[in-house]
Amino acid sequence: MAPPPARTAAFDAIAPTYDASRGGPARAGIFAEQLAPLLDPAEPVLDIGVGTGIVAAELTALGHRVYGVDLSPGMLAHARDRLGARVAVGDACRLPIRTGSATQAVSTWLLHAGPDPRAVFGEAARVLRPGGRYLVIPARGIRPADDIGQVVTELEDRLDPSGTRQDGPDFLAPLAAAHGLSYEGAASERPTTFHVSPEEMAAALAGGHLFTGAWQVTETDLPLVEEACARLRALPDPELRRVREMADFVMVFRREG
Ligand SMILES: C[S@@+](CC[C@H](N)C(=O)[O-])C[C@H]1O[C@@H](n2cnc3c(N)ncnc32)[C@H](O)[C@@H]1O
Predict the structure, then answer these.
(1) What is the mean pLDDT of the chain?
(2) CB–CB of 186/251 below 8 Å?
(3) Fold of the domain built from segment(s) 5-144+163-193+246-255
(4) Considering only CA atoms, which of 175, 169, 160, 101 is closest in space to residue 137?
(5) pLDDT above 70 (res 5)
(6) pLDDT: which is higher, 50 or 243
């Protein structure tokens, strides 16, 4: 059954430019390298929210047999080019997968992007065998704590008062535990450094690009975004690029039983 258009429209719209605007194969290759040591190459991998398949393709190149589901037909069209019939349209909250049939599953940058994490964990727990693992790379990993980061993080928190886009361990671990998935901790931490000025960040925000990408700035959000842009431009030396430090990591959840 086709997914309701409203839930996929945002990703359908950005699908053609998604890879290039999210770090391309370099980002995907790093994610695959972080995940690979935690995966059993003898067992298939289910990528929940496979998107354009860019991470799955890198995992495949490392010798893993990856299958994927995603709600967005636009994103999935690219995944199909990469992975063929191994991908299908499917909802992470209602996986088209048999109970207890998977040994390992991954999600990269999914849980901040719209689906109810409770439902996703419920489904991950259902499809995994006892002892199976669900590996999650969050979008909001260890964030830059510099002056730009303080403004942007505060903006994101104000745009998400109910916390539906939180995807860090503090928020997710109890939700997972409620479904029989125990959080075993973070692995494969990978620090990265990049350079951005407050002015560049303000321009990106004003153009509708929030740090975690998938967020759409609505008319209602605009005053908050404009306020954040003004605060960024009021920082000392707004044209000066800061060396920004963050880290990606993998959260490891294990199916109990
Ligand atoms: C930020 S993208 C990440 C894609 C890919 N994992 C990556 O790292 O490039 C988020 C993806 O989650 C998908 N998504 C959002 N809600 C979903 C749901 N309920 N079920 C399946 N996929 C979903 C979107 O369509 C999109 O492709």
Answers:
(1) 91
(2) yes
(3) Rossmann fold (3.40.50)
(4) 169
(5) no
(6) 50
**24-44 burial string, b = 16+ CB within 10 Å, else e?**
eeebbbbbbebbbeebeeeeb
Tell me how crowded residue 254 is: count the other CB atoms within 10 A of its CB.
17
* Listed residue (225, 182, 212) closest to 14, CA to CA: 212
Would you list the domain boundaries of the chain? Answer: 5-144+163-193+246-255
* pLDDT tens readout for residues 194-239: 899 999 999 988 877 665 544 667 788 889 999 999 999 999 999 9
Rounded distance, CA 205 to CA 213, Å? 10
Query: Which protein residues are within 6 Å of ligand 1, measured from CB?
Result: 8, 11, 49-51, 54-55, 70-72, 75, 91-93, 108-110, 113-115, 214
Residue to probe by mutation, ligand 1, list 47, 71, 116, most atoms within 8 Å of CB: 71
Is the pLDDT at 120 greater than 90? The verdict is yes
Q: Are 91 and 151 in contact (CB under 8 A)?
A: no
Q: Is 7 exposed, middle or buried (0-12, 13-18, 19+ CB in 10 A)?
A: middle
Q: What is the mean pLDDT of residues 118-128?
A: 97
Q: Residue 180 carries which DSSP code? A: T
Percent of the chain past pLDDT 70, that is, above it, reads: 94
Residue 1: Cβ within 10 Å count: 7
Burial tier of 97 (Cβ tally within 10 Å: 0-12, 13-18, 19+)? buried
Strand locations in the chain (E): 45-48, 66-70, 87-89, 102-108, 128-137, 181-196, 242-255
Q: What are phi and psi of 75, to 5 degrees?
A: -65, -40
